[in-house]
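Good morning,

Attaching, inline, the backbone tokens for the sequence recovery test we're adding to the shared suite. The designed sequence is right after.
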């Protein structure tokens, strides 16, 4: 059995072999490699040896996103589909043609795409493309199967990465994605049909994998507003003509625009930060600003232009900082000033909030000279938690240290409780029976918008007994709201006066915290 350094070297050597010895008649294998890497950094691991299961549906959705901009006309000398770059030496990709029709119907972003009547057929097309093409051919090297990444089972539902492979994808994500993109570009350039469209242009990489600058401009006034007109990094007043929208986790490290990943900054600060990760003092403020205080605002304002998921943004951040620490990378503090990532205090999954053990002294003082550990009330289940919520006297409840990495927590607003039952055990982010939950007390005044959030509710069943449940708040096409379970075996509940919402879910905590 290989040790970890040997396994990581074998992983890198295998990726190099794959690109050199694999047969690439189309770009799909490059897209699949990119998609697997993306899922690995978006899904936290409880242990480096975890054998991550990735569904074909997840990969199909990634395919749609990766090829979305490829379905725009590249050449202004041709019309219609003739202006599209081909992804293979044969006829135009069925997926590209389907995405092109979406663009023609004025569907302009991911949210509109998912809400359109074409989404289901797009997913089917992407699934078919995966199953008939790259999924079971990616690991055929020199005409033979060499399944280092995942076994060739022929499953139509999922792949299961081999031991340690997900951790290797996380560790070497930058390199894998860079190599996949370079191979992708070279393949497109090698296709004879494309050469007439490309001409002498050198902007192919930007066209295929660049940032949507028009959408970025839409984000600027919202960010300036929530930052009270000040630069996120130096905190000095912003001037609109010298203000940039910065990817807090650099685009070069994770090349998908997430709505919660943006901050407004002086152009000079942005250029100085470049592709560095920001120091932990900045990261803590970013978490508090974008993932806690203004998370709903950003989702509301940006969802028409970007994919918005605060939990995914947190997971990407945790991954990026854990890799930085493992590599001993420098973290950008201000112009020409850096901190050492090795001073970060990381758990296996979460990059912890600033504590006096985890930061260099200067960073620690900059955050809070009076730091002290916060404890939250802990309840074995939601029923007991709700009882304390009604009386307002949880003083006899047990307390546990607050988890870190979730912004500012307080026992007056937040608590810990166990999930019970299987109604939320489904979907991409299942909540298992016994999972430890971080929740926030809410009432009619403090609740705000609960759309697309997971909430804790109290209701009476047909026998008149009280039930205490977790449910997702969904708005139906008729404008009414339903409370839905993640497990399809449980029917949705109408949001009416028989239900009382008393908390919202902030996070399912990892086993390492528990």
């Amino acid at each position: 059995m290989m040790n970890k350094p040997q396994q990581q070297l074998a992983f890198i050597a295998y990726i190099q072999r794959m690109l050199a010895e694999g047969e690439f008649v189309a770009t799909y294998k490059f897209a699949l490699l990119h998609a697997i890497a993306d899922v690995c950094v978006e899904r936290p691991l409880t242990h480096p040896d975890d054998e991550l299961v990735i569904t074909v549906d997840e990969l199909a959705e990634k395919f749609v996103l990766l090829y979305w901009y490829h379905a725009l006309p590249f050449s202004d000398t041709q019309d219609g589909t003739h202006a599209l770059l081909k992804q293979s030496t044969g006829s135009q990709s069925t997926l590209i043609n389907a995405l092109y029709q979406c663009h023609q119907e004025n569907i302009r972003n991911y949210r509109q795409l998912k809400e359109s009547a074409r989404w289901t057929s797009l997913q089917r097309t992407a699934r078919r493309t995966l199953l008939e093409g790259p999924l079971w051919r990616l690991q055929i090297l020199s005409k033979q199967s060499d399944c280092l990444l995942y076994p060739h089972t022929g499953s139509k539902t999922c792949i299961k990465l081999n031991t340690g492979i997900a951790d290797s994808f996380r560790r070497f994500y930058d390199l894998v994605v860079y190599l996949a993109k370079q191979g992708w570009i070279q393949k497109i350039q090698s296709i004879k049909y494309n050469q007439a469209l490309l001409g002498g242009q050198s902007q192919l990489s930007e066209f295929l994998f660049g940032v949507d600058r028009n959408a970025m401009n839409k984000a600027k006034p919202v960010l300036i507003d929530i930052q009270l007109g000040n630069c996120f990094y130096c905190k000095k007043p912003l001037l609109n003509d010298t203000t940039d929208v910065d990817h807090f986790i650099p685009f070069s490290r994770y090349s998908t625009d997430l709505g919660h990943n943006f901050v407004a900054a002086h152009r000079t600060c942005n250029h100085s930060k470049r592709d560095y990760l920001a120091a932990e003092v900045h990261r803590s403020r970013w978490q508090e600003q974008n993932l806690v205080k203004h998370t709903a605002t950003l989702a509301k304002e940006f969802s028409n232009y970007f994919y918005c998921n605060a939990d995914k943004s947190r997971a990407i951040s945790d991954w990026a900082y854990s890799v930085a620490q493992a590599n001993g990378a420098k973290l950008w503090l201000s112009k020409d000033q850096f901190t050492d990532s090795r001073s970060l205090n990381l758990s296996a999954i979460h990059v912890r909030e600033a504590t006096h053990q985890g930061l260099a002294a200067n960073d620690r003082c900059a955050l809070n000279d009076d730091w002290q550990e916060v404890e939250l009330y802990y309840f074995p289940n939601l029923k007991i938690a709700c009882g304390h919520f009604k009386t307002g006297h949880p003083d006899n409840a047990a307390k546990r240290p607050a988890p870190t990495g979730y912004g500012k927590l307080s026992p007056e607003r937040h608590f810990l409780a166990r999930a019970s039952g299987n109604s939320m055990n489904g979907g991409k982010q299942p909540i298992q029976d016994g999972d430890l939950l971080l929740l926030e007390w809410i009432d009619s005044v403090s609740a705000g918008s609960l759309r697309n959030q997971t909430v804790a509710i109290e209701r009476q069943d047909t026998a008149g007994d009280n039930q205490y449940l977790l449910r997702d708040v969904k708005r139906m096409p008729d404008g009414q709201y339903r409370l839905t379970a993640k497990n399809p075996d449980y029917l949705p509940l109408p949001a009416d006066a028989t239900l009382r919402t008393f908390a919202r879910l902030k996070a399912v905590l990892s086993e390492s915290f528990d």
